[in-house]
Write a structure and sequence with these properties.
heterodimer, A: two-stranded antiparallel sheet, B: alpha+beta, Beta-Lactamase, 5 helices, 7 strands, AP complex subunit sigma (chain B), protein transport (chain B), AP_complex_ssu (chain B), AP_mu_sigma_su (chain B), membrane (chain B)
């Protein structure tokens, strides 16, 4: 050790005393004392140089400890003017360390720097250059550019090298100082320098330029760089540049970085690089020193960065896999990183090393574990996911590091969603995952999982429902952690109750199991809420029989101290009454035609009352002001006159409407001030309170707003979306969230589409009232899923039946059991639907047509009869009113040629009706049959991929059929 | 490029501080403190590299750390820089210190901040490693020292 013999005892003492302090306060005391001494001493004149030097070193020390030493800055600048190299160097160092680029003191330095840059003493120049590199700023960049550029041709390589670097900084600060051409020339001369060290510095400049994006400009230089790399690896450079007998490793690394940028996404350039890259990698592989590995790593980065080449990728993966087996964690880390790079190009080469990678998870090094997990996540696919997830779950079980476990948990669930081979596997893995990582289950995880389940359930139907209900009811027999119990409750309540809607035995069994859980040891009261909710859902099933038990339970929890529990218990208790009452409701028929009034009407007419003729008013609506008939005014009154009160426009008619829908006194249509905000145009129901309230747990839509409470709760239950945001799941009903695409699914879709196209005219005619009634109930069912549910005749429709009950409460839907006109259509429905699944057996359908004449008739209508339409001049409000009055709604989603608004307008023109309003991709139109003057309302939503959603509401169902057929013929 | 180069004593005191990008003094100290805390994660067999996941300097950056005697050498580097290259660079710096101070120790760094910084300035200019040839650097530094002594 060369102790500072030339340094005074003072500095030594200062350092020693600071070293001995035990607290920050003590340290501060010493420093404050020292600073004061320094301040007075620095002001003394004629201080010996040695003393000044020591004082500045003290100042550096003080500043290093985080204290302010700004009083010394001016002395540092003075020192730079010293003639002694030692003091000058210290002066420049202090300036570099103490001063910011925007310090006002810098201006005092410029003249000294200018002078020193032109000095004949190499070391003064070098020190000045170093200081310029650190301190140069926009304000005085111009003053220094000239002397720096001159130094590029200095006789000493150290100066040329540093001048190059400073030139780069100058150009970064101000592009105008050096012209682009000039700059390029100068770096080119840099790489042609006879000294390799200057050449190395110039590489940095190229690298920086390339990083900034000037790739194309330098592509012609690829050959030069390649040959340089070749020369380096062939030991053509002087031995001095060897590092542990490895030729100029840092230059190799730099060149590889440059080549990576040049060859990215460019086959032609990459082809020039492949050969030298292979050789470099081989030679680097032969060494066993760290820096050799560094070059290997850089080669791998280059290989994965340029246009991929198979054999090189293979070579790279092999080289890197050796890193993984090394004892050295640094190498393992780099190996993992390198493989992560390769995997993003091609998984193939990495998969061989799968098990080695998995073993890295056993490491005790945090960084390494994290990286490994990242890599495994990236390389998992359908084939290896079982193995990898199993391994990961093993680590989840055994690990004690909770951060790592959390990471694992998240990654496993993502992988499971993405790659699980079968649904069964998915559910089982999810359950194991929840078991070992139950502490990580939060609302997000849960809701996400529920959404996956319900999406799958909607897609696949009852089979899946039975399957998961089985699994989860099995689970119920064990002791469960609360977090898992919540999930089980949800599944049983949501899906179990739908699946076994008609099966009293199963329902009893499930209810028993759930009730037992109430007596088990629970961690928190919120779990009870979940159980109660589950029971409430179960009791809404049609075949539910255990009302006495559930009522007793709800009654018990009505006294609960937990507000959430209490509220739920009260709500569900009330609901239980309704549920019981509704048991009989399936036999109640509501007669929308109100035939029971016929006698009364007859009587009145005999007394001389005017007959009620709805078509008159529809006509009026359709033709607007064009009719001469003194009918109702459909043109809006001015606001002042109207007074904002919309009722009354329709007179008695309107009143009838509003009484039917007490919760929506004003016209409750989808179109409001903010635009169209619901998919289903006429919602004759109170809207579901979407943010399901009550308590902290999600789910359970008990809305406490007076009379609608019961309805809304039941709706949310009936629609099978309790616990999830109903609207959201509807609007985000896109395939991308579907985690488990069953293998046959796309095919099925295709078939459906085909069937849809082939048989749509028929099936459309079949979608008579009974159908649409069901559909209205299930708001969550996207139109495209209808076919799916129609295939499995009875089972999957059960949710709809609950929904049907709901509709009964809302009165104005036509009902399945209908008056004399419809039975034919009703009976044929079952058969004609069939072609969608059994489309290989058309015989059945034909047979059917033979003995059900009317079907054939209906089918032929669109072709035989030519109808014409006239535009209806109505406004949006009138449209809505008309829409609610007519219930012959036909819904269909088609694959069409219509991809823009223009296309849509063309279609509307062809039909010859008119557009009433356009909002984004949704358009509403209205018209009337030219002959019968019956009204036709059309709602359409197109999308850029050609999927066209149509809803046609017409007084005469034949009009809707005709228009649909027309659209299909001409626009699909 | 290298963003930060620090030498820190095992007692958590800064011995050399070089920031190669403009960073405010207050933030410099924050960064230093966090890096010092990070040194506790370094054990003889553990990996010397860290990703700056917490954004101590910048989330894209990597941190290379190495322990010699009583000193931690810490470099914050950007995504392009080779971790292993920097690790060997630190080795290089330590070798050079040994040659210049004749078996270097922490006190040398304290007593000779000018020499230490001059050494680093020879290797890293504006955050970029310009010279890695120990012989060249040693030669340049020797010349400077002899000139200083002669005057």
């Amino acid at each position: 050790m060369s102790s500072g013999s030339h340094l005074s005892k003072e500095l030594h003492d200062l350092i020693k005393s600071i070293g001995e302090t035990r607290s920050k306060q003590e340290e501060d005391k010493i420093i404050i004392k020292e600073v004061q001494q320094l301040k007075t001493k620095l002001n003394e004149k004629n201080m010996p140089q040695k003393k000044v030097r020591e004082m500045l070193i003290k100042a550096i020390y003080i500043e290093m400890l985080g204290h302010d030493a700004s009083f010394v800055h001016i002395n540092a600048i003075h020192l730079t003017q010293s003639k002694s190299l030692a003091l000058k160097r210290l002066g420049y160092l202090c300036c570099s360390l103490f001063l910011d680029n925007d310090s006002e003191l810098l201006i005092l330095l410029v003249a000294t720097l200018q002078k020193d840059l032109t000095s004949t003493n190499v070391h003064i120049v070098v020190n000045a250059l170093t200081a310029v590199g650190k301190l140069i700023s926009k304000t005085f960049v111009n003053a220094l550019t000239e002397p720096v550029l001159k130094l590029l041709t200095h006789s000493t390589d150290i100066v040329r090298k540093k001048a190059l670097m400073v030139m780069q900084i100058i150009r970064q600060l101000n592009q105008d100082c050096i012209a682009e051409q000039d700059y390029d020339d100068r770096i080119r001369r840099g790489i042609q320098d006879k000294e390799p060290s200057v050449m190395g510095a110039a590489f940095n400049l190229y690298h920086e330029e390339l990083k900034k994006g000037a790739v194309n400009k330098f592509k012609p230089l690829t050959g030069t760089f390649v040959s340089m790399l070749k020369q380096i690896i062939e030991h053509k450079l002087h031995k001095d540049y060897d590092y542990h007998r490895f030729p100029a490793p840092w230059l190799q690394i730099k060149l590889l970085q440059i080549l990576t940028l040049l060859g990215a996404n460019d086959l032609k350039v990459s082809e020039q690089i492949y050969e030298v890259l292979g050789t470099t990698l081989r030679r680097a592989d032969d060494t066993t020193i760290n820096i050799g590995y560094a070059v290997t790593y850089q080669c791998v980065k280059c290989i994965s960065g340029i246009y991929p080449q198979q054999s090189l990728l293979e070579q790279a993966a092999n080289s890197v896999s050796r890193f993984l087996k090394s004892e050295n964690n640094n190498l393992k880390y780099l190996g993992i990183n390198a493989l992560t790079q390769i995997v993003s190009i091609s998984q193939k080469y990495v998969l061989e090393h799968q098990m080695t990678i998995v073993d890295c998870l056993e490491s005790n090094d945090d960084t390494l574990k994290k990286e490994t997990l990242e890599l495994l996540y990236k390389m998992t696919n359908e084939q290896n996911c079982e193995v990898i997830i199993q391994k990961l779950i093993h680590f989840l079980k055994t690990s004690s590091d909770s951060n790592f476990k959390k990471d694992l948990f998240v990654k496993i669930s993502l992988l499971n969603e993405k790659h699980a081979p079968t649904q069964e596997w998915f559910i089982k893995t999810a359950n194991t995952l929840f078991e070992y990582g139950s502490e990580f289950i939060d609302n997000d995880v849960r809701n996400n999982f529920f959404k996956l389940l319900i999406d799958n359930f909607n897609d696949i139907g009852s089979e899946f429902g039975v399957f998961i209900t089985e699994i989860y009811s099995e689970l119920l027999k064990n002791d469960l952690q609360d977090n898992i119990l919540k999930i089980v409750c949800w599944v049983i309540g949501e899906i179990g109750s739908q699946i076994y809607d008609q099966d009293p035995n199963k329902l009893n069994e499930l209810t028993q199991l759930i009730i037992l859980k109430l007596d088990s040891q629970l961690e928190s009261e919120t779990t009870i809420s979940w159980i109660l909710t589950c029971l409430a859902k179960l009791q809404s099933a049609r075949a539910f029989q255990m009302f006495d038990q559930t009522r007793a339970i709800f009654q018990k929890y009505m006294q609960s101290k937990n507000l959430d529990c209490q509220q739920r218990a009260i709500d569900f208790y009330t609901l239980a009454k309704f549920n019981a009452a509704l048991k009989g409701s399936q036999f109640i028929t509501v007669d929308p035609k109100m035939q029971f009034l016929d006698a009364y009407v007859q009587q009145e007419r005999q007394r001389g009352a005017q007959p009620y003729n709805p078509s008159l008013q529809v006509k009026a609506a359709a033709l607007g002001s064009a009719t001469e008939a003194p009918s109702l005014n459909f043109i809006p009154y001015s606001d002042t006159k109207y007074g904002g009160n919309k009722t009354g426009t329709f007179g008695t008619e309107e009143n009838k409407l509003t009484t039917q829908n007490p919760s929506a006194p004003t016209i409750a249509g989808p179109w409001d001030d903010t635009g169209y905000n619901q998919k289903q145009p006429p919602p004759p129901k109170p809207t579901i309170a979407t943010p399901m309230s009550i308590g902290s747990t999600t789910g359970i839509g008990s809305n406490s707003s007076g009379q609608t409470t019961t309805k809304t709760t039941m709706q949310s239950m009936g629609s099978g979306q309790m616990g999830l945001n109903t609207n959201q799941s509807q609007s985000t009903y896109v395939p991308s969230v579907r985690p488990l695409p069953p293998k046959e699914d796309p095919n099925l879709k295709e078939k459906q589409k085909l069937a849809n196209q082939l048989f749509a005219p028929i099936s459309q005619t079949q979608q008579q009232p009974s159908q649409s009634t069901q559909k209205k109930g299930i708001t969550t069912m996207a139109a495209s899923k209808q076919m799916n549910s129609n295939i499995n005749t009875n089972q999957p429709q059960q949710p709809k039946q609950t929904a049907q009950v709901l509709n009964l409460l809302e009165i104005d839907e036509p009902l399945p059991i209908q008056s004399s006109q419809q039975p034919i259509i009703g009976t044929s429905q079952g058969y004609v639907q069939q072609p969608q699944i059994i489309n290989q057996k058309p015989i059945i359908a034909q047979q059917q047509q033979l003995w059900s004449q009317p079907t054939a008739q209906i089918q032929s209508i669109p072709q035989q009869q030519i109808k014409s339409y006239i535009p209806a001049n109505i406004n949006v409000d009138q449209y809505e009113q008309l829409w609610e009055r007519n219930q012959n709604i036909k819904e269909i989603t088609l694959q069409s040629k219509i991809k823009s608004e223009q296309d849509f307008r063309k279609m509307i023109q062809t039909i010859n009706i008119n557009i009433i309003e356009v909002i984004d991709q949704e358009i509403i139109c209205a018209g009337a049959n030219a002959e019968s003057k019956s009204c036709v309302l059309l709602y359409g939503s197109y999308s850029l991929n050609g999927s066209l959603e149509l809803k046609i509401n017409s007084t005469d169902p034949k009009d809707a059929e005709y228009i649909l057929a027309l659209i299909k013929r001409q626009f699909c | 490029m290298i963003k930060v180069f620090l030498i820190v004593s095992s007692s958590g005191k800064i011995r050399i501080r070089r920031f190669y990008d403009e960073v405010e003094f207050a933030r410099q100290q924050q960064i230093e403190q966090k890096l010092i805390v990070l040194t506790s994660k370094l054990s003889p067999n553990s990996c010397n590299f860290f990703k700056d996941l917490d954004g101590i300097y910048d989330k894209k950056c990597k941190i290379v750390m190495r322990f010699f005697g009583t000193l931690y050498f810490i470099a914050v580097i950007d995504e392009d820089e080779s971790e292993l290259g920097v690790l060997d660079l630190i080795q290089n710096i330590v070798d050079l210190m040994d040659k210049i101070f004749d078996n270097a120790c922490e006190l040398d760094v304290l007593y000779h901040p000018d020499k230490m910084n001059a050494l680093i300035d020879e290797i890293i200019v504006a955050g970029i490693v310009v010279e890695t040839n120990i012989m060249d650097i040693q030669e340049a530094l020797k010349q400077q020292e002899t000139q200083i002594k002669n005057k």
